[in-house]
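[recover] target loaded
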């Protein structure tokens, strides 16, 4: 009877009532698998991470052969920085399903390897298997690259990273979703168009179009530039709430054009002022949610380089932090991470270099068009002079200094980005000048950072 009542509430969307009845079921029978799985679904929808963890832990005990339960629990623990526990569940999941080679990547991400092991030998053997499909081979290649980088066998690490990138480049960059190198001339032309549209006249026209809200802090930059580190520092302040990658800014900016049937960037000057103001209000509400205890909200939004001009007019008083990093270290970090189709240009060192220059070209334009709007933070400076750089950062954001911002790695927060392992550690300089370990392999990247762009065929 209780199951039927709980299920009825669940189906009707009355989640709180459903939860009450499922809890009653488990109070009477802690081994009830149906109620445990239902509560997992409920707590995912209600956003109750600690309860979710407990229910997954119970499920792995009730169903020790349940691969998904071990896998999901490992990922939840990983996101919370509980790496020892995460490794234990990932390894059990691999025993249950040895074909899930993506778990090798998760293990490599959160493990600092100090010696060769049977696990590594097995991964190398799996990589050479003729029966392994391309996706599985790519996943193991990136994992082995990370492992041999840890072991300081840099040539061997680069061999595996190159193998993974070659597979990814063939599968992504040549597809309709990808960005092959021959698209660079079109991107050069696109940059010129943006710089022409977003000039003095554009900003003068929309001078009063946005809303007066200074609570938003945008942390942006290219991937692997230190954005997660900076967001973590700010989120450790008592007056700041970090939203992670809220993923609402880009859709909001895109909607300005889909709703008006205009095109970007050509139609930007014809946007209705009311639409800009409405979008700004919608975005701020989405970022803040129902939180009332914070005066500032951090939204980490990458890929802003082409659309800074729209954000300038939408929220003229928002703070914008742009993270930058040595292009060789950043380019290498791109190359050493399997982003999937999300960053299709990062599987070829030459294309990485060209894309970096195109990005910096637009950043220079925004600084010239709207001086002072963007606060530039150099990753290497944060590493070498942390307290001073944090003080200046907080001052720019209108926040008082708090020493907790230096202990960001102690803050209990969920991290889902590629930097989830790094931001659980105190600041160190292990990633500064890392490119020197691979210098003999980086000629295509170095040349692309200096040589002329390719011309259209």
């Amino acid at each position: 009877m209780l199951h039927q009542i709980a299920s009825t509430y669940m189906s009707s969307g009355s989640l709180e009532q459903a939860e009450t009845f499922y809890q009653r079921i488990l109070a009477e029978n802690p081994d009830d698998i149906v109620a445990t799985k239902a509560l997992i679904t409920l707590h995912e929808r209600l956003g109750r991470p600690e309860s979710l963890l407990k229910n997954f832990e119970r499920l792995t005990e009730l169903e020790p052969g349940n691969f998904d339960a071990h896998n999901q629990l490992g990922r939840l623990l990983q996101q919370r920085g509980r790496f020892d526990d995460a490794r234990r569940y990932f390894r059990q999941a691999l025993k249950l399903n040895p074909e899930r080679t993506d778990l090798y990547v998760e293990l490599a991400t959160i493990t600092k390897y100090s010696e060769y092991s049977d696990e590594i030998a097995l991964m190398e053997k799996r990589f050479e298997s003729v029966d392994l499909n391309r996706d599985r081979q790519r996943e193991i290649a990136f994992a082995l690259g990370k492992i041999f980088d840890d072991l300081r066998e840099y040539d061997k690490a680069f061999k595996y990273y190159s193998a993974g990138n070659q597979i990814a480049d063939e599968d992504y960059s040549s597809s309709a979703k990808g960005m092959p190198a021959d698209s660079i001339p079109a991107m050069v032309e696109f940059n010129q168009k943006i710089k022409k549209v977003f000039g003095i006249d554009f900003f003068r026209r929309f001078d009063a179009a946005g809303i007066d809200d200074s609570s938003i802090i945008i942390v942006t930059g290219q991937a692997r530039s230190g954005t997660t580190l900076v967001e973590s520092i700010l989120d450790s302040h008592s007056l700041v709430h970090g939203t992670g990658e809220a993923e609402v800014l880009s859709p909001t900016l895109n909607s300005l054009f889909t709703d008006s049937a205009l095109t970007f960037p050509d139609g930007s000057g014809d946007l209705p002022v009311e639409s800009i103001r409405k979008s700004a209000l919608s975005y701020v509400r989405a970022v803040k949610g129902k939180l009332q205890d914070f005066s500032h909200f951090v939204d980490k939004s990458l890929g802003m380089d082409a659309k800074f001009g729209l954000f300038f007019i939408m929220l003229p008083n928002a703070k914008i932090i742009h993270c930058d990093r040595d292009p060789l270290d950043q380019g290498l970090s791109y190359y050493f991470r399997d982003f999937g189709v999300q960053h299709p240009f990062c599987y070829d060192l030459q294309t990485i270099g060209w894309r970096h220059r195109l990005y910096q070209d637009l950043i220079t334009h925004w600084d010239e068009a709207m001086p002072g709007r963007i606060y530039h933070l150099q990753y290497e400076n944060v590493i070498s002079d942390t307290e001073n750089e944090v003080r200046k950062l907080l001052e720019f954001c209108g926040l008082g200094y708090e020493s907790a911002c230096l202990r960001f790695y102690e803050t209990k927060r969920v991290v889902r980005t590629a930097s989830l392992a790094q931001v659980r550690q105190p600041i160190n300089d292990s990633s500064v000048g890392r490119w020197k370990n691979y210098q003999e392999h980086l000629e295509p990247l170095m040349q692309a950072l200096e040589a002329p762009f390719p011309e259209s065929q």
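[recover] notes: The beta strands are 216-221, 240-242, 296-300, 319-324, 374-378.
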